[in-house]
């Protein structure tokens, strides 16, 4: 197993109290696999990925759990040791390509910086590698574009540069935090296709953070659905799309328009995400659930394993209660 | 870039015209009649009238102004009522003292201001941050003349470490080449004079720099805090580079943009003469001199100095804009073909 996240807890201390942004999340990513983490804003998916990178900063902290990468607990590593992992073994691309590159440095300097930090290459070799990487991510005339400043490139181009930068040191795991959200649809498809192709070519695993189920269906092998800092369902892409078990997942899938159905209005999950400081006593989704039962308001269901190896946190599937 | 600079320099003309207009008429409206001040209290009515006539003060104000502009265009700003020396010469003999003091003060202010600002932002809400911000609050609020006097009492009066006034011991004064005491003594290889000039510089420079340092520190801090929250800082951290390098290489360069403006404008105002500091330390610079000339209604000198200050300000702004273009590749003054 390449990455094993076990009972991860990440919290933020704010004036009003403590927000448990990630509350006992566990999942695994195998070598060469694409795992998608899905959820709406505030579900804790981005915080999960930043926790893996060791990039949670004040007032946040990882409060518990383990993050095993090739069997080593990343949470036990020193700042220096984590710096050696970041950008080399695990790298990350972000949602906003427009602002994720430093505006005052040329593209080549930013890509070369990663290479020079983690390898023994000299500047000339690093520049050559940077040009190769731009070529790999499909930037035309890389010898010239490498001298550009970020503002001379479009959003799609900048995201390609980010990917080139992230892959420059052949990472074993790429964390892509909503890599296509800020891009228009045709560019989205190109970027996803690129990530998928490079995954096959370079054999790396991808942790894909997204709120877009279309993206999941297209690229991922396995899916983790998060809600209010917890995993509510985990399955293969096929299982999830053919038979979602958790009412939240069902709601998400129902709210996507389908070609073969003739419906006047789309389904909508009622209500809004609860205040993270005052989560309801029982299941966090209870207030918004169409199938809510009495005990859902009293107890938090446990993430239980079904016969076909999926995991679901719902009393409709299993009676197990969290913490019992 | 060259075209842009020329364009900006041309804009100087209307600015100077406006400034000269305001200062010329203000002096004539507000300042007392110079004749009795120049000739002394025992001057007769006739001698004063004669003096006014000789200095063109009996002409209509508009004619006086036109004459002044005609002279100014050819570089003749008139002569001082008192010394009879050309205004340009009077200014030129005092300006180096002000420039020397201003440059040393702004260097001190920039170095310490940026260091305090960066440390405060990186260690936000720590004791360094609170201490640094307290110091800059003191810096912006302490009256400069009071600070100057306190420093004189402490370092000159009680400790006897530093001299309290002047640029250099008159007996050590090096021959004037550039007018900058420190440079002149270096050129002449006179280490004793150099040491004395530096020692004389310490208190005025520290006093003068405190306010600018405080402004620069606060600007650096807020600009750094904003920059440290940017997405590209997160990207830099995700690359695995050290936190020190993230701060120095990625954050500081971006945060320096607004700080450059502040440093430039501060230098501009310091070059215009630090009136209070120069008065407290009897520094023979242009600020001190101007105040005396305003008191004595020495119209030509005041007009000359104000024009000089306007030129300095416009030029400082231009220099800041040019530096901006070097710091930030997104700024281009001319349309480049893409």
Automatic annotation (TrEMBL), chain A:
<keyword id="KW-0067">ATP-binding</keyword>
<keyword id="KW-1003">Cell membrane</keyword>
<dbReference type="InterPro" id="IPR013563">
    <property type="entry name" value="Oligopep_ABC_C"/>
</dbReference>
<dbReference type="Pfam" id="PF08352">
    <property type="entry name" value="oligo_HPY"/>
</dbReference>
<dbReference type="InterPro" id="IPR003439">
    <property type="entry name" value="ABC_transporter-like_ATP-bd"/>
</dbReference>
<dbReference type="InterPro" id="IPR017871">
    <property type="entry name" value="ABC_transporter-like_CS"/>
</dbReference>
<dbReference type="InterPro" id="IPR050388">
    <property type="entry name" value="ABC_Ni/Peptide_Import"/>
</dbReference>
<dbReference type="InterPro" id="IPR027417">
    <property type="entry name" value="P-loop_NTPase"/>
</dbReference>
<dbReference type="InterPro" id="IPR003593">
    <property type="entry name" value="AAA+_ATPase"/>
</dbReference>
<dbReference type="Pfam" id="PF00005">
    <property type="entry name" value="ABC_tran"/>
</dbReference>
<feature type="domain" description="ABC transporter">
    <location>
        <begin position="3"/>
        <end position="253"/>
    </location>
</feature>
<dbReference type="GO" id="GO:0005524">
    <property type="term" value="F:ATP binding"/>
</dbReference>
<keyword id="KW-0813">Transport</keyword>
<protein>
    <submittedName>
        <fullName>ABC transporter ATP-binding protein</fullName>
    </submittedName>
</protein>
<comment type="similarity">
    <text>Belongs to the ABC transporter superfamily.</text>
</comment>
<keyword id="KW-0547">Nucleotide-binding</keyword>
<keyword id="KW-0472">Membrane</keyword>
TrEMBL record, chain B:
<keyword id="KW-1133">Transmembrane helix</keyword>
<feature type="transmembrane region" description="Helical">
    <location>
        <begin position="134"/>
        <end position="162"/>
    </location>
</feature>
<feature type="transmembrane region" description="Helical">
    <location>
        <begin position="305"/>
        <end position="327"/>
    </location>
</feature>
<feature type="transmembrane region" description="Helical">
    <location>
        <begin position="255"/>
        <end position="276"/>
    </location>
</feature>
<protein>
    <submittedName>
        <fullName>ABC transporter permease</fullName>
    </submittedName>
</protein>
<keyword id="KW-0812">Transmembrane</keyword>
<feature type="domain" description="ABC transmembrane type-1">
    <location>
        <begin position="95"/>
        <end position="324"/>
    </location>
</feature>
<dbReference type="InterPro" id="IPR035906">
    <property type="entry name" value="MetI-like_sf"/>
</dbReference>
<dbReference type="InterPro" id="IPR000515">
    <property type="entry name" value="MetI-like"/>
</dbReference>
<feature type="transmembrane region" description="Helical">
    <location>
        <begin position="101"/>
        <end position="122"/>
    </location>
</feature>
<dbReference type="Pfam" id="PF19300">
    <property type="entry name" value="BPD_transp_1_N"/>
</dbReference>
<dbReference type="InterPro" id="IPR045621">
    <property type="entry name" value="BPD_transp_1_N"/>
</dbReference>
<keyword id="KW-0472">Membrane</keyword>
<dbReference type="Pfam" id="PF00528">
    <property type="entry name" value="BPD_transp_1"/>
</dbReference>
<comment type="similarity">
    <text>Belongs to the binding-protein-dependent transport system permease family.</text>
</comment>
<keyword id="KW-1003">Cell membrane</keyword>
<feature type="transmembrane region" description="Helical">
    <location>
        <begin position="197"/>
        <end position="217"/>
    </location>
</feature>
<feature type="transmembrane region" description="Helical">
    <location>
        <begin position="12"/>
        <end position="29"/>
    </location>
</feature>
<keyword id="KW-0813">Transport</keyword>
């Amino acid at each position: 197993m390449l990455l094993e996240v076990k009972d991860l807890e990440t919290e933020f201390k704010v004036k009003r109290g403590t927000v448990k942004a990630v509350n006992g999340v566990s999942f695994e990513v195998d070598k060469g696999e694409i795992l998608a983490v899905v959820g709406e804003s505030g579900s804790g998916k981005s915080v999960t990925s930043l926790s893996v990178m060791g990039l949670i900063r004040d007032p946040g902290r990882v409060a518990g759990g383990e993050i095993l990468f090739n069997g080593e607990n990343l949470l036990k590593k020193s700042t220096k040791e984590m710096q050696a992992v970041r950008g080399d073994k695990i790298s990350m691309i972000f949602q906003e390509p427009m602002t994720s590159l430093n505006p005052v440095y040329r593209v080549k300097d930013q890509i070369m910086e990663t290479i020079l930090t983690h390898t023994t290459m000299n500047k000339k070799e690093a520049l050559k590698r940077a040009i190769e990487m731009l070529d790999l991510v499909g930037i035309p005339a890389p010898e010239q574009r490498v001298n550009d400043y970020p503002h001379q490139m479009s959003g799609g181009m900048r995201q390609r540069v980010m990917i080139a930068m992230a892959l420059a040191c052949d990472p074993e795991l790429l964390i892509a935090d909503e890599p296509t959200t800020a891009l228009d649809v045709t560019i989205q498809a190109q970027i996803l296709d690129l990530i998928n192709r490079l995954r096959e070519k370079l054999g790396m695993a991808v942790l894909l953070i997204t709120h877009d189920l279309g993206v999941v269906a297209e690229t991922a092998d396995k899916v983790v659905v998060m809600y209010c800092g917890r995993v509510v369902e985990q399955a293969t892409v096929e299982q999830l799309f053919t038979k979602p078990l958790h009412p939240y997942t069902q709601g998400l899938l129902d709210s996507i328009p389908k070609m073969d159905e003739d419906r006047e209005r789309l389904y909508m999950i009622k209500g809004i995400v609860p205040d993270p400081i005052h989560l309801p006593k029982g299941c966090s989704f209870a207030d918004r659930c169409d199938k809510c039962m009495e005990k859902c308001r009293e107890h938090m269901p446990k993430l239980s394993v079904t016969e076909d190896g999926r995991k679901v946190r719902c009393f409709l599937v299993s009676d197990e209660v969290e913490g019992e | 870039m060259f075209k842009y600079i020329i364009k900006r320099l041309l804009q100087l003309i209307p600015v100077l015209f406006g400034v000269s207009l305001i200062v010329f008429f203000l002096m004539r409206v507000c300042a007392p009649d110079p004749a009795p001040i120049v000739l002394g209290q025992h001057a007769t009515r006739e001698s004063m009238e004669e003096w006014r006539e000789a200095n063109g003060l009996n002409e209509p104000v508009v004619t006086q102004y036109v004459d002044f502009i005609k002279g100014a265009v050819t570089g003749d700003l008139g002569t001082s009522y008192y010394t009879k020396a050309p205004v340009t010469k009077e200014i030129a003999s005092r300006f180096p003292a002000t420039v020397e003091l201003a440059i040393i003060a702004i260097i001190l202010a920039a170095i310490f201001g940026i260091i305090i600002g960066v440390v405060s932002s990186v260690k936000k809400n720590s004791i360094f941050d609170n201490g640094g911000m307290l110091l800059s609050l003191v810096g912006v609020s302490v009256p400069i003349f009071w600070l100057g006097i306190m420093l004189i009492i402490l370092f000159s009066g009680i400790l006897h470490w530093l001299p309290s006034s002047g640029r250099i011991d008159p007996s050590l004064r090096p021959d004037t080449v550039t007018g900058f005491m420190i440079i002149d003594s270096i050129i002449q290889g006179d280490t004793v004079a150099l040491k004395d000039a530096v020692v004389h510089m310490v208190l005025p420079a520290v006093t003068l720099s405190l306010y600018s340092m405080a402004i620069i520190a606060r600007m650096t801090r807020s600009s750094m805090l904003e920059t440290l929250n940017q997405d590209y800082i997160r990207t830099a951290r995700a690359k695995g580079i050290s936190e020190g390098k993230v701060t120095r290489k990625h954050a500081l360069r971006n945060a320096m943009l607004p700080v450059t403006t502040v440093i430039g404008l501060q230098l501009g105002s310091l070059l215009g003469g630090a009136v209070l500091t120069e008065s407290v330390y009897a520094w023979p610079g242009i600020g001190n001199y101007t105040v005396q000339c305003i008191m004595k209604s020495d119209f030509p000198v005041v007009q000359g100095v104000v024009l000089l200050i306007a030129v300095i300000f416009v030029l400082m702004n231009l220099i800041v804009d040019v530096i901006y273009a070097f710091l930030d590749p997104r700024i281009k003054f001319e349309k480049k073909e893409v």
